[in-house]
Protein: TniQ family protein
Organism: Bacillus salipaludis
Amino acid sequence: MGKYKVKVYDSLLLKEIQLNPTKLYKLRPIRLNTKEVESLSSYLTRLAEIHCITVGTLLDFILQNSFVPADPRRKYIISSKINGINNNIDLFINAIENLTGQTNLADLTLLRYKNIFSNVNLLKNTKTWCSACLDEMRNNNHSIYEKLVWNVNHFNVCPIHLVELESICPDCKSEQKIVNYKGGNGYCQQCGSWLGNFVEKCTTISENDERVYHSQQISYLFTNLNMSVTSKEKLIMYLEEVDEKLLKISRNKEKCNEIFGIARNTFNRFLAGSSVQLIFLVKLCLLVGIELQDVIFNSIEIKNKLPELFRNNNLKNKKVEKRKVGKTYIFNKLKTRLNIEKIKMELVSIINSINQEPISIRKICVKLNVSQPTLMRYFPDLLEEIKRRNKKVSKEQKSDILNTRKELVISTITTLYSKGIYPSSRRVEDELPFHLIYENELLQVWRETLKELGISYKQN
Ligand SMILES: [Zn+2]
Ligand SMILES: [Zn+2]
């Protein structure tokens, strides 16, 4: 019997246990500390999904539990810039962290760079995405999420798949808001279509395309979380060093401009302490032949590197090319005028094209290699014309899609009915690749068809 003696653990007796339950589930962010990290807006969409509430309800709940100052807080926090470096976004993030117990959520935004980057043109106003990336997530049964880097301006091609990012739904052609109160990563906010659908119409891009370089450099912003971001002072010192080297190549400051294609005024503004625009830094790195991450994490002694970098970068060739032309100034003027004519012709041809696709102004800017403000300044009327054309085209497309869907609803009802199955709205919806129950017009078609077939309504 002695063998079966019961052992008593006195430590189990009266120890008080502390549990700290959080109000929301501790959802882990996807791929933190990688180029592929998800955005805060994507995280919030998933967080709402697992609680079976809408993103709108979740946002209200977070704001109620935050120290974000009263209205119009929504306008500033919950905007297309939610993944950026807006004021008070840190208070908002604190509130999510307290509610979920999940830390490091600031790394789902660009907040890390608030001391060095300007907010101007940092983020896009509507969503863009790589269809191939989305398709891969779905095919591999991974959680569908949206990458933070897709939000950054000038990240226009996917460096993994070498394709341009998409900005409109392949089905109904609508643009997608960064924060959508009804939510749903990877699906169209208007018609519910899957935004992947990659194979049909991708244009592959050469690896040497400058846009690929821009995208690659930008995606480094989200790695190296263990390294601290350089200070504004150090960044200015770096710019000064570059400037000095530039002067050595050419005594004339204006000439440096011509060689590098970066406006002197812009350069001066940054030297004087204005926050730097990300794209300026990316372009400068390309010209100097240095990695963006070396600048923003201050990881190499740039001063020692510069002479060698400049030598390797074919600057001398560029200089000779310009000099051959002689009167560089006139040459540049002429070149600009020529481009303007060309741009005008392109715009007119877009307006007159019979191709039934809306073309966003952003895509036009990328295609013509011109900034949106410049385009606005020179061609306000043509741009208005293009916007009107886009609206007209997408309206026609929407009605085409609606008609096809109506027909599909009718044929589904008749098929089910002929098999002896009661075609309830829910049953019919199961057969369809789109929503029926929340679409009034389609629901109306469903009712009318049932009536025509003489089927009486049953409760679903
Ligand atoms: Zn991709
Ligand atoms: Zn759509």
